[in-house]
Design brief:
By secondary structure, the protein is mainly α. The protein has one domain. Helices cover 45% and strands 0% of the residues. The protein has six helices and no strands. The longest helix is centred in the middle third of the chain and has 14 residues. The radius of gyration is 18 Å and the shape is elongated. It starts with 10 loop residues before the first helix and ends in an 18-residue tail after the last helix. 22% of the residues are buried. The protein binds iron/sulfur cluster (SF4).
């Protein structure tokens, strides 16, 4: 894992969109790196935007997005993904899209044509 070489300096939080917009360090890549280092499977991995900003500002050129994807993969295999992810996967299997079947009680207006 890339996180094994992370010293938790926090530089990556500076460019993280989630940290900057919500002003919460707990949404940033440093926490995800710390959790991945300890192999702690937390739902916070599913909030990451995978924007690729870490490798630009990390002094060690680590790509924490790779670890986030790996943790998501492991958690999904273990059935530990958040409920909304399970729902999206089921919708893809059953309906071929992430939102599921159109509700019959709704009057959908076409956006085009
Ligand atoms: S990923 Fe890089 S920038 Fe972020 S905390 Fe670890 S060493 Fe620092």
């Amino acid at each position: 894992m890339q996180s094994d070489n992370c010293n938790l300096c926090g530089n990556c939080n500076e460019l993280s969109t989630l940290c900057r917009v919500f002003k919460r360090e707990t949404l940033g890549p440093r926490l995800k790196a710390a959790l991945a280092k300890q192999d702690k499977k937390e739902k916070i991995f599913f909030t990451d935007l995978l924007e690729g900003s870490v490798k630009w500002c990390c002094p060690a050129k680590l790509d924490i997005d790779e670890d986030v994807l790996e943790m998501r993969s492991q958690m999904t295999a273990d059935g530990l993904q958040p409920g909304f992810c399970k729902e999206i996967l089921e919708n893809f299997k059953e309906h071929g899209n992430p939102v599921g079947a159109a509700r019959k009680d709704r009057n959908y207006k076409p956006y085009f044509g």
